[in-house]
Prior knowledge:
Elements: H1 2-14, H2 26-63, H3 68-117, E1 133-147, E2 171-187, E3 192-203, E4 208-219, E5 223-229, E6 275-284, E7 287-296, E8 306-307, E9 310-311, E10 313-314, E11 318-329, E12 332-341, E13 347-350, E14 356-358, E15 362-372, E16 382-393, E17 396-407, E18 410-421, E19 424-427, E20 438-441, E21 444-457, E22 466-479, E23 491-502
Antiparallel strand pairs: 1-2, 1-23, 2-3, 3-4, 4-5, 5-6, 6-7, 7-11, 8-9, 10-13, 11-12, 12-15, 13-14, 15-16, 16-17, 17-18, 18-21, 19-20, 21-22, 22-23
Helix pairs in contact: 1-2, 1-3, 2-3
Amino acid sequence: MKVKALSAVISLILATPLCANAQTDISAIEARLNALEQRATAAEARAAAAEQKAARLEQLINSNSQSQTVHVTTVGMEQRVAILEKQSDEAQAKVNIAQTQLNEIQQKQSDQLANTKNKEGTGFFSTNTNWGDLKLYGDVEYNIDAASKKGQLTSMRTMPGNQKDFDDNEKWSLNGRILIGVDGERELKNGNYAGFRAQPMADMTGKMNLDDAVFYFGQRDKWQYKIGRYEAYDMFPLNQDTFVEYSGNTANDLYGDGFGYIYMMKEGRGRSSDGGSMMVNTHYNDWYFELNALVEDGTSVFKDNEYHGRKLDNRKNVIYMRPVVAWQKDNLTIAGAIDANVISKAYGYDDENGKFQDQSRRTGYGLTVKWDTLADDPINGIVANLSTAYLDAKDENDFSIGSNVLWRKFQLGYIYAHNDIKAYYHKNGNNSGQNDTYLTLNPGKYNINTVFASYELPNILDMDNFKTYLGAYYSRIDGKDDINVHSSDKDRYGARIRFKYLF
């Protein structure tokens, strides 16, 4: 009776139509398949049990001469076993048909997804070539700033011919820009892809600038080559750096003679106003490798093309080679890099004897460690960075170390810089020309201590793409030896309100 009941249940189940068309909901199909497989498995188990009983009966038949009754019972049992096996085979056949239909549906969905990834369909807006998708997006960033004077390091600013303040004054300003980004990309099923990115910016003063302008191609998750305007791996991340102001770090400002410099491994990182970059990168397990090359006018790093009191003459473009090796495991990332100009005698000056003095030797070394649990816990997760950098340059050695921690949208950071200026040249009198004479001075060393903080205000207008940040910094510069800092210029500080809107 149990077998007949099972047969009736299986017959009713098999009578239900499976996967009428490719648009059937996959979750419903999978539920039905699971039910079929469970019932078929139960049927097979019952059939196996019946076979075992039949085998035991056959053993009794062979050992018992009076087997007629037992034989009849065995024949009946074998018939039931045969029925169960047939029903089990039919159920399995139905399961196979349903699985085939499910595979067809999944393949169609996979093809549709592949078409999207292959950039052969329509993206954010359509193209007339059908060779890829375009994505349009934007980034609005406007600031309300208040900042103190920077303060020049040396007392030589009061000497004739050296009165440069580089607009060193208190700053009350409104500034910012609107960025419109356009990305285009096409990816094939085998992982090969190519694309571009263009990010023009319109600032508040009415000028047009450019953030990224890059072309790239490669194989997904294996290797990539890119060329254009972009930024390479950040070896001194400030994270939520709403407002940190000092003389320069060549990422958002320039090296200003006599105003202090915080070296951050960014001279060869990219986005130069006087050159372009190209890069090759690859992944291997937990390792990431990158080699970036920046070709530019090397004197563009320095404010007014002046370094240590001398006007620089550019003879040929520099090439900054910047290899980076990074290892990431779970929440921990460790990266090391070198940032070095490999072209000698690229720029410098002619001394009083007419001999060219090369000033283009600049080699930097950096190490950064990051701990990030924000993805695992968006509320209580933290992002912590510890970075250090060292620059070996002509007549100058700079060392910087910094750390910052972000928790619950609040960040606190600290940067220490210790620089050693080994030579500084001061021009005699107000004469200008090839016959100028200079005094060689020994300025000495100076330290810069900077503390900065930022906070993202929560739930502004309940819009997750509109953010408001409060930022502030305090920095103090102290000189030694021949470096003098006016007491009123030792402290530097500022505050900012930033409105950021993404679309």
